Amino acid sequence: MTWLTLLTEEGRKQEGHYFSLIKDLTLWGYFSSEVGCTQALRFNPIPGRFEGCIPYNNEPAWAG
Predict the structure, then answer these.
(1) 35 burial class (0-12, 13-18, 19+ CB within 10 angstroms)?
(2) How confident is the model at residue 54, as a pLDDT?
């Protein structure tokens, strides 16, 4: 196992573990940034109508 895998598993066992907190904050920071929203996710600044239940086609997720 790799070092990061071991830390991730250890963090899941223990609530408030430093690695889980840092990992969660890093992911949140990236995906809420302009680069994360526009390059990693699909971004539509003016969305159309609300479609609450649509089939998932294994495509990239939307940012909003």
Answers:
(1) exposed
(2) 77
